[in-house]
Amino acid sequence: MQAASALPSIAPRADEDALMSSDIPLDDASRRELERLDEILARGLSATELGQYPRGLELAEQAVAHADRIDHSGRRAKALLNKGAVLAKLKRFNESAASLREAARLADASRDDHTRVRALAKLVRVVGYRLAKPDEAEAIAADASAAMARLKHAPLVAAELYNALGTLAKKREDYKQAAQHHAHALTLLTDELGENHTRVAASMNNLGNVMKLAGLRDESVDLFRRARASFERTLGPSHPYVAIAMSNLGNLLLADPQARFFGPNPRSYVEQCRTAEDLVRRAIAIRGSLPGAERRIGRAVHTLGEALRCGGDYGKALEQFERALVIKTIVYEKRPHADLVSTLNGIARCQIGLRDPAAARNTLKRAIAISASTKITHVDRGETLLTLAAAEYGFRTRDSRPKLARQHAIAARGAFLSAGPAYASHVREVDRWLREHPPTASLGGHE
Fold it and tell me: What does the alpha-carbon distance between residue 422 and residue 329 come to, in Å, rounded to a whole number?
């Protein structure tokens, strides 16, 4: 990317205290007002880091109002930066983008490139990833890189920009480039802060996600474990970031190449499923105490269902998938959403495990209807098709339709291939299913 190549070389240390805006008042009364404002800013940052996002937003808005009252554009830029960051945490992305744009503008007017780069880096993530406007985000990244070149010695700020560029590359599905950006950010942060720091742990989590998508599972597992340990040491065991790291690790343990799409799994994998189940239950317990976490709870309950299903407990798994579907349906206000498809697929796979292909076909009809009205991932499409193949093939009954089932399976294979290298094991599972389910057996059996 041009934006990435424009970044300057970073010196090993940074004097970020020297990067303050130049419009600091000189009289004692104004200095006291400024100290009060800095205290509000610090409290707001602390609240946000502790996962107290509504409180963080309240304090950020207080800081903006205080900066307006004392007419200090430099500090107003910092307050708007904080406000934009916490709005993104609250999923209010359009408001976040507006706040970050204004922060960057004011920082530029105050000649505060430190704040300008940070605001633009966050804006790259919001616009490019959350609002799905990667071309616009590329232009913002180029502006950030130009401001970064003027700083010269600011590794922490550079790391924030590299992480943003990594997120943008991930959105474009350029996982190699994304991994390079996130790895560079992690190196800068670790050199500057050591491993026991929340920013370092978050960077590990970012790199772990990209490694997973690139098909580098072992590296991803190691990064998620390190991120979880670092978050627990620095934030305590009940912070939402710990829950995120646990969920990521649990999901990855379930995405093992030895896992079978249907039927009994190897004992070693079942043990991994039990570990994943424990991680996800702990993540759900953390998130259950947080306001506004319903969407993440719904996804975590889905993952719990998957852990139970992979372990062979189809009845309990079905209960969790149905619970996840209720939560997600409420979250999305009964509107069609791709997130519902994955859970419906899970329900149908449990019904296959319970030897009820007719129920699975009915469940999948709903998944297919949602897929027709909203964009879904290649993986969800592949899982719907392969599960439908199993339902159509049946269990040596007269309603088995082996030829149609194999057509669905072949289409599923194409979907998994389109999903990228991280899903090579899914392609192998389809190939195995096709070998085990010939097209000529009118009463063929699914095991």
Answer: 29
The Cα 283–Cα 49 span in angstroms is 18
Residue 1 CB partners (closer than 8 Å, separation 6+):
138, 141, 165, 168, 169, 177
pLDDT for position 257: 80
The pairs formed by 258-265 with CB atoms below 8 angstroms and a separation of 24 or more are: 259/310, 259/425, 260/429, 261/349, 261/386, 261/426, 261/429, 261/430, 261/433, 262/349, 262/352, 262/353, 262/390, 262/433, 262/446, 262/447, 263/447, 264/312, 265/310, 265/311, 265/312
**What are the backbone dihedrals phi and psi of residue 445, each rounded to the nearest 5 degrees, phi first?**
-115, 140
Evaluate whether 226 touches 242 at the Cβ level (below 8 Å).
no
Residues 109-166 pLDDT 10s: 999 999 999 999 999 999 999 999 999 999 999 999 999 999 878 999 999 999 999 9
182 contacts 203 by C-beta, under 8 angstroms? yes
Per-position DSSP letters for 259-314, written without gaps between them: --SSSPPPHHHHHHHHHHHHHHHHHHHHHTTSTT-HHHHHHHHHHHHHHHHHTT-H
Q: Return the pLDDT at 17.
A: 38
Separation between Cα atoms, residue 67 and residue 76, nearest integer Å: 5
C-alpha 326/C-alpha 245 separation (Å) is 24
Contact 201, 225 (CB under 8 A): no
Residue 248's nearest CA partner among 285, 291, 296 is 296
Residue 292: the pLDDT is 64
State the Cα–Cα distance between residues 294 and 297, nearest whole angstrom.
5
Average pLDDT value for residue range 301-317: 95
Burial class (CB in 10 A: 0-12, 13-18, 19+), 200: buried
- Letter for the amino acid at 103? A
| Among the listed residues 440, 383, 355, the one whose alpha carbon sits nearest the alpha carbon of residue 406 | 440
| Torsion-angle region of 406 (φ positive above 0: left; ψ -120 to 50: alpha; else: beta) | alpha
